[in-house]
User: Fold this.
Amino acid sequence: MKRVFVCRLGILLKALNMFRGEIFAYPLFLQKELHAATNAHFYCTDIACRYWPYLEKVAISMPELGSLLQMSPFLSVMHAKAHSTKCEIVWSGRPLDGAGTTAGEEVEMMNSYLSRCALTTKYMTKSAGNDMPTVHAIGWNLWKQISLHLSLSSRYIKTVRRTEMANKKLEDLCSELGCPENRVLEWVRDVRLWATDDSIHTSCSSQHALQHSIERFLVCIRKKQVCIITLTATRFIICGERN
Assistant:
């Protein structure tokens, strides 16, 4: 098994062999190597909400790793859907400057490509089994570099369109509710404050805590309902186009 780090364009930067399964020490080592070689400002992982407290504890006992706390973590888009509502709000990369349109699933694409070697490397010797994924990784980076101009132009067009759509939705929401844009931004800050505030269970009475718990579950259910409706409509459109 391998742990890899890729950039937002899908180019493989660092990789290592895992001998103990999924432990936090592996991404910590890769992050340290990446931070020393590049000037990265953020990183994306599907366990950002669990990895960040671990990194804070390690930085206390090992001060030389304190510089890693300057990198902002966030959850990948697909994995954030499986987390709780508060976790998705706090660790989402959408409000992070410079990472708003990063899906965070580039590592999964790389792993899907390298998984083709699994059918052949298990019949090889240990040395050849290590060399085969390396050759495939070099070929993957070469293919990404050759098609870099196409991916950059395509991503730029998609980002511009998404920005225009988001601005249009914000204007429609402001006109529908009859409130200025700064009021909507205040609501966004209130939601993020609600997601980060865990003192409600200790400072409030049991009745208020139960009320807030019910409200939190209601938000989760409605969010899941919207996701299911959107996914069903998308599948229906795709099937209709194929037919």
Notes: Residues 206-242 form the longest helix (37 residues).
